[in-house]
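Work Package 4 report. The design task specified in the project plan requires that, given a folded chain encoded as structure tokens, an amino acid be chosen for each position. We show below one input record used in the internal validation round.
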């Protein structure tokens, strides 16, 4: 038979899955001999059984009754005893901390009779009525469904009538009257009386806590923190101790270290004559915990001793709740405290230096997500007002600049020394110069993997996408939010970490951690802690970390950040700007001679780009992807061309022949879904000379760097291969050009040729493709898109929020790799590719290469490297080390 109830004295913290965090830690404190009010825990098994059926599990209440009898015998009092009642608290306690997300009911056991006995035995009539009204208020809202605001309104009216500044100013008679008003409110709102049976109060309270697991705020919190929905919560039932018995009583919250900075010491708040809920609710101003040294020196000394015991035992920052009842200290709860990213690195370092944990344990306690937060500048939260609008936090950091509404204006103002924020409905490749020039990008459409988001993250540019409250009018050069109109040139502040936009210039706080990665200057404190963690991670990791970089400047930055090469150099970005005219000439060529002339003009420009990148990454691998997007993306907008031609016709003028030719080309190349059309390897197979020009530019750059004494390590990657025959034909063309350059230069140019695995068919036929490919690189952006059948630029705004709400997604599959679907394809391709070619080098260059959770998957799947934007390189390095550490621990535990 399943057992549902355990006494605190029976268990320990290792049983958190069964007892929840709170129950397991109360048991552990009991085991340590700390002053814990006696009690018992109802397990998560009971909660899951209740949630599955909607009713209490068989035998649960009998077990609770049996444990209650033991509790009553030890206390010498019974629950609700008229002359000296035993009172109980009923609290939630999930496996993972969810502070304030579920329900708590205090003072269970009071009724119209026992409140009189409590008043007599305590000698404090006011305390008794205060406790009873708290029970009715908590029970009424939590269990019986009365709007808590109604209780607050009744209390506020009473304080106003009595001229009371706070609850403590109300007399016993006032509180007795308030209790009667609360009971009438319950009867009025529910049609039922407040239950007078203490046993029934306990039963309903336990079931209400179970039900609160599926409350809206609990579900939202779990979704944000990626806590599984099927864990359920335990319930702790504990003897009440009272902080609201007078000036010699009180409640508080304490931390063994500062959760904001990690500094050692005594931190927290204390509130005299109060129960614990008063401290967190903020109904009265607390005093610093250090003030307790003067208010109650003995309790303060005991608390400090217990805190030292707990930190040494848990070997971590401890968050503690306590109550003092007439000078006697009681420990009500402890847990591993939540902390900022800064505190996480500082605490891990200090505990390792103190010998409480090992360096490897310290590394396990920090995260790439936290490191990313430390790298980006941020606003001074104390100085920002109410946000003008909110969107998706697409690329973290904080930036200030004048709002501009097109790329050219962003470039013009930036060149003049002005900081700008590029505001668009959504961005396209045409906007790249403006995005480079801007401090931040703000769009009213798109998701976290839209063009704006992906490119901004790659550049380390702050970005907020999908701010639907904003209406962008590019013609009038302004945007509006409700009644606020923001004209071009108006200064705005963009918080890419929170997804918020503010009017005016919010003050920025510099990131010392970013300066460390840029310059290598190491100091004590936070930077020293981060540097130590990075050194430990680099010493442990198996995965190499490369960068996605398209310019020599990006390559140099990536190298400073610790990149071990370039995993993705996208050649199409080199076709933008002034070179676009040459691409247009190639597309509009009327014969082979004109096409060759345009390609010949592009060749030296591409060669120059590759030479600079190879120089910046000298002696490190540089994987260059041949052109991937459809060619029509390099032509002007179809609608804009049609409007220009129509306008000329309306004026009786002859349209510009170049515009006419361009429109013909756009119409000829138009595709309903260009992402599944003529792109990648398909372009190389049907557009004569395009691949040969790019390969020649790469090969000649290798020759130039070799002659200059460099050690270039270029690799050629063919995109969007779905069949081995495609790669075989294209590889033959690549090797033909390499042989030509080798013969012309007298320098052997032997470059590895591989492919991107970004189509499900490529993953499923990886064994055959590996016969022609010397390396694989997973393009997980497109692999996710084609596996799910999603259009990445459309679906996030269309229905992802609904999918998240319904629990279909725990997180966007474009942010964290879908292990069950896309991840299975990755494993198949790795296994079959290496079966055909054991020495096959395999990496990933999609957005997931810089995602902390995904990095752990790629380590486990056996990849050789991950590649990500330069600004994510430190994050990937840290997580690659943590992944190696985690896999070692897993192996050791077997």
């Amino acid at each position: 038979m399943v057992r549902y109830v355990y006494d605190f004295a029976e268990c320990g913290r290792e049983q958190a899955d069964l007892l929840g965090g709170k129950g397991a830690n109360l048991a552990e404190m009991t085991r340590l001999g700390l002053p814990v009010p006696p009690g018992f825990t109802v397990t998560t098994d009971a909660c899951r059984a209740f949630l599955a059926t909607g009713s209490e599990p068989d035998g649960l209440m009998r077990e609770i009754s049996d444990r209650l009898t033991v509790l009553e015998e030890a206390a010498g009092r019974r629950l609700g005893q008229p002359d000296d009642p035993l009172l109980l608290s009923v609290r939630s306690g999930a496996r993972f901390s969810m502070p304030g997300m579920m329900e708590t009911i205090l003072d269970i056991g009071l009724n119209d009779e026992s409140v009189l006995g409590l008043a007599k035995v305590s000698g404090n009539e006011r305390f008794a009525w205060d406790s009873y009204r708290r029970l009715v208020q908590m029970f009424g809202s939590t269990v019986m469904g009365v709007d808590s605001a109604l209780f607050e309104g009744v209390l506020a009216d009473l304080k106003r009538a009595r001229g009371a500044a706070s609850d403590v100013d109300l007399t016993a008679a006032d509180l007795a009257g308030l209790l009667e008003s609360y009971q009438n409110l319950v009867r009025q709102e529910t049609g039922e009386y407040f239950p007078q049976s203490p046993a029934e109060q306990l039963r309903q309270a336990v079931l209400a806590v179970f039900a609160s697991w599926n409350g809206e705020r609990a579900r939202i919190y779990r979704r944000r923190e990626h806590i599984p929905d099927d864990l359920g919560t335990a319930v702790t039932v504990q003897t009440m101790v009272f902080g609201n018995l007078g000036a010699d009583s009180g409640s508080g919250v304490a931390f063994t270290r500062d959760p904001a900075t990690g500094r050692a010491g005594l931190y927290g708040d204390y509130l005299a004559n109060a129960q614990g809920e008063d401290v967190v609710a903020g109904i009265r101003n607390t005093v610093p915990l250090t003030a307790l040294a003067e208010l109650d020196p003995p309790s303060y000394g005991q608390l400090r001793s217990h805190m030292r015991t707990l930190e040494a035992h848990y070997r971590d920052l401890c968050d503690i709740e306590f109550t003092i009842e007439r000078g006697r200290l009681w420990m009500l709860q402890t847990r591993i405290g939540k902390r900022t990213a800064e505190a996480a690195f500082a605490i891990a370092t200090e505990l390792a230096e103190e010998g409480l944990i090992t360096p490897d344990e310290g590394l396990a306690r920090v995260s790439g997500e936290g490191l990313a937060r430390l790298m980006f500048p941020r606003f001074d939260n104390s100085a920002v007002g109410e946000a003008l609008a909110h969107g998706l936090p697409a690329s973290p950091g904080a930036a200030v600049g004048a709002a501009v509404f097109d790329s050219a204006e962003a470039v013009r103002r930036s060149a003049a020394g002005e900081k700008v924020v590029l505001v668009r409905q959504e961005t396209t490749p045409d906007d790249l110069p403006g995005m480079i020039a801007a401090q931040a990008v703000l769009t009213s459409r798109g998701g976290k993997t839209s063009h704006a988001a992906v490119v901004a993250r790659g550049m380390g540019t702050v970005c907020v996408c999908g701010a639907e409250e904003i209406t962008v009018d590019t013609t009038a050069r302004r945007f509006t939010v409700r009644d606020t109109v923001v004209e071009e040139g108006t200064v705005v502040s963009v918080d890419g970490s929170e997804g918020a936009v503010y009017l005016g210039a919010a003050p920025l706080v510099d990131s010392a951690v970013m300066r460390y990665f840029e310059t290598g200057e190491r100091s004590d404190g936070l930077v020293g802690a981060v540097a130590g963690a990075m050194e430990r991670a680099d010493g442990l990791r198996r995965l190499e970390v490369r960068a996605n970089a398209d310019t020599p400047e990006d390559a140099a930055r990536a190298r400073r950040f610790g990149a071990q090469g370039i995993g993705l150099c996208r050649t199409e970005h080199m076709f933008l700007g002034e070179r676009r005219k040459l691409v247009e000439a190639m597309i509009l060529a009327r014969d082979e001679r004109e096409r060759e002339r345009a390609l010949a003009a592009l060749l030296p420009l591409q060669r120059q780009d590759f030479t600079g990148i190879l120089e910046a990454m000298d002696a490190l691998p540089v994987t260059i992807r041949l052109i991937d997007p459809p060619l029509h993306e390099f032509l002007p907008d179809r609608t804009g061309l049609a409007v220009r031609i129509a306008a000329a016709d309306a004026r009786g003028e002859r349209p510009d022949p170049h515009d006419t030719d361009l429109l013909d080309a756009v119409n000829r190349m138009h595709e309903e879904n260009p992402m599944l059309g003529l792109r990648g390897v398909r372009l190389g197979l049907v557009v004569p000379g395009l691949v040969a020009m790019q390969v020649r530019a790469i090969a000649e750059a290798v020759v130039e760097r070799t002659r200059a004494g460099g050690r270039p390590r270029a690799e050629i990657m063919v995109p969007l291969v779905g069949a081995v025959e495609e790669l075989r034909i294209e590889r033959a063309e690549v090797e033909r050009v390499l042989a030509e350059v080798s013969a012309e230069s007298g320098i052997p140019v032997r470059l590895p040729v591989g492919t991107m695995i970004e189509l499900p068919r490529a993953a499923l036929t990886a064994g055959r493709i590996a016969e022609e490919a010397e390396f694989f690189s997973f393009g997980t952006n497109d692999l996710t898109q084609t596996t799910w059948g999603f259009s990445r630029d459309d679906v996030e705004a269309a229905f992802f929020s609904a999918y998240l709400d319904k629990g279909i997604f725990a997180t966007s599959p474009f942010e964290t790799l879908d292990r069950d679907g896309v991840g299975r394809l990755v494993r198949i391709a790795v296994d079959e590719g290496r079966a055909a070619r054991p020495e096959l080098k395999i990496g990933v260059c999609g957005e997931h290469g810089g995602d902390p959770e995904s990095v752990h998957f790629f380590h486990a799947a056996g990849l050789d490297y991950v590649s990500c934007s330069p600004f994510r390189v430190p994050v990937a390095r840290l997580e690659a080390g943590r992944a190696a550490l985690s896999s070692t621990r897993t192996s050791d535990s077997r």
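The mean pLDDT is 90. Validation will be extended to a larger panel in the next phase.
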